[in-house]
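Lab meeting, action items carried over

1. Structure of the two-component assembly. Owner: GW. Status: complete.
Input record:
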Amino acid sequence: MQPSDQVFVLLKHWLVGRSPAVMQPGVSILLTIVPILLIFPVLFAVTTVLERKGLGRIQNRYGPNRVGPYGILQPLADGLKSLTKEDIVPSSADRTVHFLAPLVLLAVAFLPYAVLPMGRNMVAVNLDSGVLFFFAIGAISELSVFMAGWSSRNKYSLLGAMRAVAQMISYEVPLLLSSIAVIMAAGSLSTVEIVEKQSGFSGIFPHWYVLTPWGFAGFILFMIAATAETNRSPFDLPEGESEIIAGYYIEYSGFKFALFFLGEYLGMFAISGLGITLFLGGWSAPLPFLTWVPSWIWFFGKLLGLIIGFIWVRGTLPRLRMDQLMNFAWKFMLPMALVVVVSAGAWRFLPQGVTRWLVSMVFIAAAYVLLARGVETRNKIAKRTYRFAE
Amino acid sequence: MLGEGIVKGLAETARNFLGSFIEKDRLVTVQYPEERLPVVEAARMFPFLIYDGVDQEEGLRCVACQICEKECPPQCIHIEKSKDKKPDFIGKQQFYPAVFDIDVSVCMSCQICVEVCPFDAIRMDNEFELSTDDRFAGLLWPKEKLAMPNEHYLAIHPTEATEVEARRAEEKAQAEAKKASQPAAVAK
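Predicted assembly:
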């Protein structure tokens, strides 16, 4: 194990060792929490620029390029702007809940990072039920969204919050089911153990779950559900600028709005991190001869890759309609996720070799073809004839 | 097959994304303060007053007839007529504006003042970068700020200006011919 791999762990141990014995537990906790509280907001700032520039390029524009060289200081300007803006609370709003909603969202957005292993030995808490903790915390974000929508006393806010709750609860089911497949295969709920199970190699191929038929299908389902869970385009109905203006945060201005934004992006990073942990082998290297690269570089590289994927999808797909959203969740995602679970079970109990690959693949492919028939709307496009108007 | 359209869409956006780095023609944005599109000849913002020659008091074409002041729909022009007179371009004694103010915060760029002016004294400028930190005095333009040399008019609206120039030259020639013939008539 290279020292570069463990540089942050060693640094922490060194700093804790230097502090007086009474303070050591406190210092240790502080040194675990503060980096998380610093790194991910910085990543948020970087992502906003990347997103705006990327979307701009997709639409053949430049994107922000005024603040600093190539516009990289844009988040600084955005932050200053939102800090200096007036904070307006509607006179009929429930002031306490209105104030609490962004704080709850932010607190909830930070908590899941506690169980994400960001490198070898780099996890804040190695909970035995880490994945369960992650989803339990993730469910609270629905509460904060509804708090925001309800307390604003605005019809658009309430509509947005209702949509958000309906969507998040619907998509939580396939999200959980697709991760259950991984939990079954790994035999553990601990995120650290799940990553360790995937860190081996057979030949040049890593033991990542995404490289199995059920894992691949599970990963795709997981990422689709994660997109819906974080309210990102094409599942941004709760915000729907063109329909309900900004949904549940229509009555938020200034820094509270920025906090909502931050919370949303932190949620996206966290769920991408979980996707990496469950399917993409966490901090493990993709090829055996690349293991000399520090493990945390792999984690953040994969995270950046998934973020770029999110931006790419946002730049491509238009927003779904409410009925399409629900049909997709309940008629395609849910049965597909169940098939993935069954396929993972078959994979677990069949002997290693071609048989289990074939069985697993047949399960997935058959389910995909059959379920796709139900989801695809039969567009009967014909020349329209008029009876009276000619 | 389900998902086929999504893959096609992703390929299309990727093509646009990468294409914007390779083909510069794709990026249609004009980076405004550094590069700018040429202003079209018919562009108009706010009126200005034309003067001939070098001295703006001497050569101002306006004779303070106040037609533009009366016709202006938002009433943004304020003129005070002079007590004395000065000769115009054909040597005729005319009044001139002692005060000529345009409140550009009120002006709606309708060009009616230009159309009604019988002396070709007021025209539309195409200057559009007019922001100021004083929204009262900074947007009330006095005669001194409004007065522009005729060359400026020729530069910004060449087609229209040459027409006006030709007409005025003809008028001046006629007036001179008349003046030349009149003393003879008196002498008779």
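2. GW to write a short summary for the group page. Key points so far: The radius of gyration of chain B is 26 Å. The mean pLDDT of chain B is 87.
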